[in-house]
Design a protein that fits this description.
Elements (H helix, E strand, L loop, with lengths): L3 H15 L2 H6 L1 E9 L4 E3 L1 H10 L5 E12 L2 E11 L5 E12 L7 E10 L1
Parallel strand pairs: 1-6
Antiparallel strand pairs: 1-2, 3-4, 4-5, 5-6
Protein name: SnoaL-like domain-containing protein
InterPro entries: NTF2-like_dom_sf, SnoaL-like
Pfam families: SnoaL_2
């Protein structure tokens, strides 16, 4: 059985692959920091919303979560994302996200550090 925080992070990651911007924004603090290692760092909920809107390119995604580890205000989620574009071309990405919540109980995500590799 999944703990409450494990379910929270599972739902959050599923929202990303579904493009559910409302759920994503409802799960983060106004001063969210999302550092994509080797790429950009997003600071603030307004910048995040703009970035998420720009990610909607019509590709279809499938998520495989391998592990969700939570402890206090921190969590790690890793897995594989399968992407299919409108031409049927497939790509696969291995990811690991490290999360920090603003508080332990019913917290929102304050920091995300993402490591993503195409496999």
């Amino acid at each position: 059985m999944e703990a409450k925080n494990q379910q929270f992070f599972k739902t959050f990651n599923e929202a990303f692959v579904k493009g559910d911007i409302e759920n994503i924004l409802g799960s983060v603090t106004d001063d969210i920091v999302w550092r994509m290692v080797g790429n950009d760092t997003i600071k603030g909920i307004d910048v995040l919303e703009h970035a998420l809107q720009g990610m909607d390119n019509g590709d279809e995604f499938e998520l495989e979560i391998e592990h969700i580890i939570t402890h206090g205000k921190e969590a790690a989620v890793n897995g594989i994302i399968h992407s299919t574009n409108k031409d049927g071309e497939q790509r696969h990405y291995s990811f690991c996200d490290i999360y920090k919540l603003n508080k332990h109980k019913d917290g929102k995500i304050k920091v995300i550090i993402s490591y993503v590799l195409e496999i």
